[in-house]
Amino acid sequence: MDSHRDGGAARALELRHLRCLVAIMDTGSFTDAAHELGVSQAAVSRTLAALERLLGVRLLHRTSRVVTPTPAGVQALARARVLLAGAGELVHEAATGRSRLHIGHAWSAFGRHTTEFQRRWHAQHPGTELRLIRHNTPTGGLAEGLCDLAVIRAPLDLTPWAHALIGHETRWVALASDDPWARRRGIRLADIPSRTLAIDRRTGTTTLDLWPRDRRPEVEYTQDIDDWLAAIATGRRVGVTPQATAAQYRRDGITYRPLRDADPVPVHLIWRVHDTHPATHTALALASGLYRASG
Where are the alpha helices (DSSP H) in 30-184? Predict the structure, then answer.
């Protein structure tokens, strides 16, 4: 079968073509490459010829004593190493992926519970590596395939996802530290319309629905948590955010004060319905327990 396929015009690039090229250059000869690959020297020659036909260029200069790459061969060799490394990583991920749990979030993970969640996870589930990933999309990277679970606080249609409510968080106001409001013990919703409000339109939890239509603040839209904090630090903007932001983003020049009369923010875990990680419900139970314990 291999002889037939290599004898005609090659139709598709295969990993075996790349492995052959790398083996020839790493060992320095067709004979040694054949030994490393566990095939005949003739098979190595046919595979290299098929690769050269596929690419339409000569890749190697071959004499009785030495094999050297052509300029095109140098480029192809470098690219082959990258592609083979990526294929190896893919195989490794497929074999070990379920022993690693990725939890995504847009702004904060579990807020003030994050450190305790990590500590308990590592102590109780040492066989499953935990990774927390920040990704500034509405699903915290879940829709993009970057995580197994995601922590969601922003208003989002949850119907496409499996989901569970793990707790609630109070809302806080973020201010520049030299803002006159920073001297207050708390701030009320009715105070906010006198200021310009920074809102992340993609992943923020704050919407103008918190205020009556005739008493809504002016808004400046930002792109992510860093952009949001930078706008507030100038003193010209304020922000409204869940307590998790106040816990995880303590920054010089930023002060947080509780928002006294606003409804709390629901915190959900979401995951793919047809691709549920085996540790999903374990993570759900741990996170829910931490939120319940904090009242």
Answer: 30-37, 41-55, 71-96, 114-124
Question: What predicted TM-score, i.e. pTM, was given to this entire model?
Answer: 0.67
Name the residue among 146, 173, 172, 153 with its Cα closest to residue 291: 153
Separation of alpha carbons 159 and 134, rounded Å? 22
C-alpha neighbours within 13 Å on the C-beta side of residue 156: 30
| 238 DSSP 8-state letter | B
Measuring CA to CA, which residue among 128, 36, 130, 18 is closest to residue 78? 18
Q: How far apart are CA 203 and CA 195, in angstroms?
A: 21
pLDDT at 163 over 90: yes
The token duo for 17 is 């073509």
Match domain 97-168+266-293 to its CATH number in 3.30.70.2750, 3.40.190.10, 3.40.50.920, 3.30.460.80.
3.40.190.10
Rg (CA), the chain: 28
C-alpha dist (Å) from residue 111 to 170, 205, 268: 11, 14, 13
Tens of pLDDT, residues 138-151: 999 999 999 999 99
83 or 1, which is more confident?
83
